[in-house]
Amino acid sequence: xxxxxxxxxxxxxxxxxxxxxxxxxxxxxxxxxxxxxxxxxxxxxxxxxxxxxxxxxxxxxxxxxxxxxxxxxxxxxxxxxxxxxxxxxxxxxxxxxxxxxxxxxxxxxxxxxxxxxxxxxxxxxxxxxxxxxxxxxxxxxxxxxxx
Length: 147
Description:
Elements: E1 8-13, H1 28-39, H2 47-58, E2 69-71, H3 77-85, E3 88-89, H4 90-106, H5 108-113, H6 120-136, E4 140-146
Parallel strand pairs: 2-4
Antiparallel strand pairs: 1-4, 3-4
C-alpha cells in the first residue's frame, strides 16, 4: 500500500452545511494538474501542461475556473487577501472539471500524456460533484492546496 501524498487539494464552500462529497483518493494528482495547467501559459513542458494546452487550445475547454486556486497557508497579509479573492461561482467550476475529466477519458492523446496520473479523471469528477453540490445551494467555492 502506498502512503498518501502530503499534497492535498482543499475544497471549501460557502454553504451553510458540510459538503457530503469528498475525494475518494489522493488529490495530489489534481493539485499537480492544476499547477501545470496554470504553468502552461509560461511554456511549461511537462505532460500535464501539454495536456492542458490541448484541452484549452485544441478542444476549446474553458479551464479558467480550475486555475483559480492558491496556497492554503498564507505567509504574509498580501497572500491572505489573495485567499479571499479565490472564492468563485460553483457551477462554472463544476462544468470545467467535468469537461476536463471527459476530455481525458475520451481523447487518446490526453490519455497518453496523463498515463502517469491514472486517477486524475476520477478526482476531476469528484471535484465537479463537490462544485455542483455547492451550486445547487447557491454557494461559492474556493480551491486551495497544502503541501
